[in-house]
Amino acid sequence: MLDVGRHPNIELLAYSEVEKVEGEAGDFKVTIRRKARYVEDDKCTGCGACAEKCPTVVSDAFNEGLGERRAIYSYFAQGIPSTHTIDADHCRQLNGKKCGICAKTCQAEAINFDQEDRVLELDVAGIIIAAGYDVFDPSLIPEYRYREIANVVTAIEFERLLSASGPTGGHMDRPSDRAVEAEIAGLEKKAEKSQKALSKLEEKFNEPSDQFYKKYQAGEYKDDEDRKKWADKYAAHLAVTEPLEVLKKKAEAFTVAKRLAFIQCVGSRDFRFYPFCSGYCCMHSIKEAIISHEHEPETTSSIFGMDIRAVGKGFEEYKIRGGNNSNITYVRGRVAEITEGPDNNPVVIYEDTRERKVKRQEFDMVVLATACAPTKGIAELAKTLGVELDKYNFIKTSSLSPVDSTTPGIFVCGCAESPMDVPESVAQASSAAERAAEIAFQTDLEKEKAVA
Amino acid sequence: MSKDILVIGGGIAGMQSSLDLADMGIKVHLVEKLPSIGGKMAQLDKTFPTNDCAI
To answer: I need a labelling partner for A43 at 20 to 30 A (CA). Which of A67, A195, A258, A302 fits?
Structure first.
């Protein structure tokens, strides 16, 4: 990633989109819109002082909504370019409210609220589409109750929980427990505020609030307006602190998730959604189970699937090693339903096809191995580029030219072409680069011919 | 005529093709719609089957 940012032959146009493409192989004219970041990229040093001071909290897409960022942000900590971006949908200043704190904080004077989108035109010989994929939305499968049961997460969400730079610092904290902790933090803030107000009154009347309140309830100070206000304030304070204590007691019992279930083929190999096999999800689940076990040696994982497809160099060995060393049980059977048991524990109902029995098992957390779905903007991009899509909306290719789109000079690699894992994406990327280079060097040759 | 190449998408595939082309001496314009490159792989903690760090 760093190499891409530093390479003298690469012009990085982040936060930009392709608007128009004209021409043919060897001679394309491309219009690109560089969206306004409201931060000057040649001035921003990426120090992050602005994001520390920004008062607007927004859900963090990089952490799959499990964490928070500010309205001015860097997409993720090691992101390249490190230039910060103002989220125009949430920024107070850009929505007509008084703010501008980031501009006051920024020592590099990089903030520019008047920045506008820039449109630039490029002449290129060839184009490579590497637009990637989207994670399948499992809320389309009602029986898995994703979003209804807090502790049912997708594989990519689980990945963020596992990450040391993620929202939990790599601890397997369950989403339901994190919600309670967030509630506690909110109530503590409220309680602190009301406590401050009460302390002032206690000083004024020289009496602790609880003693006064008992007397007040017994009928003293009936006609005293000031004391009535004090009593109301104390009652409001109790309405915060009492549930706070209950929640705190509940939170004492919280531990990290140790019993994990991984459900395979969520959206893929399912005729209601995508009949294809996404290919990488089996290995992805095994990897997540192995890493969870590394984080917490008591972790046990059950991987529910029709079969485990470990096709690739070193993959089968990895699967066996997981079973032997990382407490992974492979269960052959398709999960019919997930329900919620006590303590927000998801309960998996499945048929164990080896024993031909319907079983139920309780877990701390369930991870859905979601399908590799075509990315949302791909239809529009394909239209702009004039390339055909296949029946699922991946870029159409043929088996003997797997990186050539239907338009000469336009190539494709990675999950925009079909679902694939990292090593395969890298191999296909090099292949597409080579095909594009042929076109680029051809234009050189033609130039020489023309001169001759 | 230009011999530059446009790469759309700054994930692992887009980054790899850009680097390969750039190393061949071809000028690459890499377009990414999000504020930073990295794509889905930057969100991954480790990659199988070697458990290497994704970033």
So the answer is: A67
